[in-house]
peptidoglycan glycosyltransferase (Achromobacter agilis), 754 residues
Amino acid sequence: MEHGRDPRPRRQASLNAAVTPAAGARRARRWRRRGVFAASALFALAALLFTLDRLYPLPPVDSGGAAVVVAADGTPLRNYPSRDGIWRYPVKPDQVSERYLETLLTYEDRWFYWHPGVNPVALARAGWQWATNRRIVSGGSTLTMQVARLIDPELAGKPSRSLSAKLRQAWRAVQLEMHYSKDEILSLYLTHAPMGGIVEGVEMGSRLWLGKPARDLSPAEAAMLTALPQAPSRLRPDRHPEAAQAARDKVLDRMVELGRWTPAEVADAKIERVVAPPLRARWLAPLAAQRLLQEAGAKGPGSRRPGDRPALVASTLDADMQASVERMLLDRVDSLPPKVSMAVLVMDNDTLEVKAYAGSADFSDDTRYSHVDMVRGVRSPGSTLKPFLYAQALDEGLIHSESLLVDAPMSFGGYAPGNFQATFSGPVSVAQALQRSLNVPAVDLLDRIGPSRFASVMLAGGVRLRLPAGAQPNLSLILGGGGTTLEELVGAYRALARGGIAGRPRLRAEQPVVESRMMSPGAAWIVRDILEGGGHPDRPFYQSGSPARQLAWKTGTSFGFRDAWAVGVTDRWTIGVWVGRPDGTPNPGFFGANVAAPLLQDIVAALPEGAPQFRTRPETVQAAVTCWPLGYKLGSVPSGACPEQRTAWILNETAPPSFAGYADASQGPLRLQGVATGSVLRPVPGARQVAVDVEVEGAEGEVWWMLDGRVVSHGAPGHPFKLVLAGDGRYTLTVMDAQGRHDSVVFEIAGVTP
């Protein structure tokens, strides 16, 4: 080297001379060989993994037959254990608390979203410890490896720290990463992580140990559920709260060490005590849950194993509303006779979603046939179908709200119905007949409309009237002669609140909305007004504290007091109540008005009102002054006579005249003679009874004599009637002819010797 000269130009020249075209080609070939080798190695590795994956496939990931039926907000209603008796609740990462995910990933697997199923650093450390100690000191398990152990039956039966188990666990973890996304793998852990006893998964653990959903966990609760799977038996919070609290605090300390939470946050979290109730099933809507599970198993997506039930079945039920209804039933059940049950169904009128479903009074009481779902039980509906008959008569132009009907003993081809109270009211309006649930006027209307036509309208509205084998629809239908269900009645009554359109109640949100028209909007409005306010445009009958809570309701009692019903509608809800014995045994003294109606009204008072709705009267409904009892509008009576003016709801500007035979009720006065109103009658000295001869003037056709509403005689009008009374008191005597005309007197008997 020459003194003072820089050697770098010479060295650079030497290097430049070495890089000849031939040398460059050789270098390029070497890099190509290396690339081909790397690609071949990767291909071979991929082929090996593919082959191993086909030879040793992942075991099917399923719920093991476990299932949970949940309310609309995810609240568990009823849990069904797996084949091995485990309770699980499938859940996704976005359905649990951020605090829990933070503690879980920080404490168990900080590199979860970066490793391919196994953590090479952790495995290397575990391998070195095994080589130096001849035993596994730390397993180096990732969350994915823990999931592999949870889903692989063979791993569950091997010691967790054996080398063969670790190798199999690592391979299964790689397979999981090949087949599932990171969030899916995390979901498997959240669903299957052991939480003590027969509980698996963070959601089920949170619900059963803490009484809350996993999305609402506090930092302390999140840390406790993170630690629990490490030793689920030893750390069960109901049996070993001190151990569970110590394990929780260890997780909390780790969060401070790694800088995830501040010391102040952890100090606040440690103040919370670990307290858990004894493990037991907490059920809501058990019969609805059973039905949902059966329907989902038959029609919904199944799991990978034949016969497995779906893991999660969602319903439309409102957990708070369901709990409130069940409490009301339990409050009443002890006052019922033995073996009597109750059923309730609450439906949202807009969505048709069922919000409360109680198929029996007390699911824990087998003496009341608790496992019989009376929401679906076919029973006689009593008088609950009458509103639909009157609506049909309105739509067919037969009546308006003040049309004359006659409640008196009548025979319809040998069928002679009576009233529940065994009395008769004489001439009544349509509104009075419906609100009092009088039987003879209803049978008369059905006779004019036709039982088959009425049954068809009911079927169109979702109410299938079951008749004995071979029987045809007949006049007894309107008094409960055909069977139906509470569910069908609720769907039909919805028509009164939604313009005449009935709907099929839905227990699952994915069920289609099924609606059908039962009556015109005008007929629905008039019938609802009668049931809710008496049907008089000029004087409302019933007022509630809030317009949204105004209730249009109807009761029913089947023959022999076997079934007591009450069904009602508000702006937002349709509610049905049934009370009786599921085996059909009579319950004397139990009828809709005194048993089912009070429960219905209590339920309505407890329901949320929702947004107030302004109810508009359909344009087809008008208020008109009519002439009673002829039925015509004022000013249009053919004879010009109008004995009494009454304001009525009419449909489509039409005021039909009263039925033939009833229309002559104003032709000449009918007078009862022989005793005057206000009279006080006394027996002759020494007699123990009072006898009085009465007669009627102006009657046409057969006449009926009624004392205090009970028929005591009938016959030709020209013959006096001898009335004999043997007790002091106040009496009402009424006489009515075949035209529906009537006259009454009120008098007293006094001085009869006992």
About this structure: Residues 8-55 form one domain.
